[in-house]
Amino acid sequence: MSIDRRQFLAVGGSVVASMALAPGLRLIALAEARNPDQGVTNLKRWGILVDTTRCAQGCSACVTACNKENGLQQDVRLDIRPQWIRTVTLRDEQTGYVQTLPMMCQHCEDPPCVDVCPTGASFRRADGIVLVDRHICIGCRYCMMACPYKARSFVHENLHDQLPDIPRGKGTVEACTMCVQRVDAGKIPACVEACNYDGGKAMTFGDMKDPTSEIAKRLATEPSEEIRPQLALDTGVRYQGL
């Protein structure tokens, strides 16, 4: 995807199926995680900081890691692979400067996807991670239209050979979960881990509320910005070097 840099920052596009849920109990655990009694509280807010000056053109380490971690398979009928994270190329028409950055669910403080969801399937955990409870998702796709980052996708086909911790279901909407299964186990998201090992070390993950964390220190001392800040969504993903 190649678009004008100013268009990307200033103007964003907004764009009931039967549901067959995949096996597994992980979705129940995610739904229960809305309750602070389950160990998730607003004392933390997980976030990702992306230094775009370190994102090399052609690098797809974060995308590859996400696909592997979450078992994202090729859609045979549509001949596409769902992407919870994708790379976007920005080009400044005046200077000719080109840069590449990863785009995923921005895990907003005030998520538009949650506002429009008629069943409550789209929800924001107390620690800032935005998720979809596929048990109650009816596939209306209102959240896809409301997302200003085009970060959600729809499952059209029956799925096979799924991972037990990341069940997915035909007729439901899905998006980046910030690898919640890893975060809850004390690990970092797969995209961040891969970027640190195989990419340009452009991504930093951590608790934005913890003043001692690397991400909080960098946000406090280095310039960064949100994508489409005029929407005042207070995103959990921030960028440097735009």
What does the model show?
The chain has 242 residues and is of the alpha/beta class. It has one domain (2-240): Alpha-Beta Plaits (2-Layer Sandwich), CATH 3.30.70.20. 22% of the residues lie in helices and 17% in strands. The protein has eight helices and ten strands. The strands form four sheets. The protein has a three-stranded mixed sheet. A three-stranded mixed sheet has the order 9-2-10. It has a two-stranded antiparallel sheet with strand order 5-6.
CATH topology: Alpha-Beta Plaits
How does the overall form come out from the CA principal axes?
Answer: globular
What class do helices, strands and sheet pairing give? alpha/beta
**Shape-level CATH architecture:** 2-Layer Sandwich
Which sequence of strands runs across the widest sheet?
1-3-4
How many distinct domains? Answer: 1
- Which percent band covers the strand fraction? 15-25%
Beta strands, count: 10
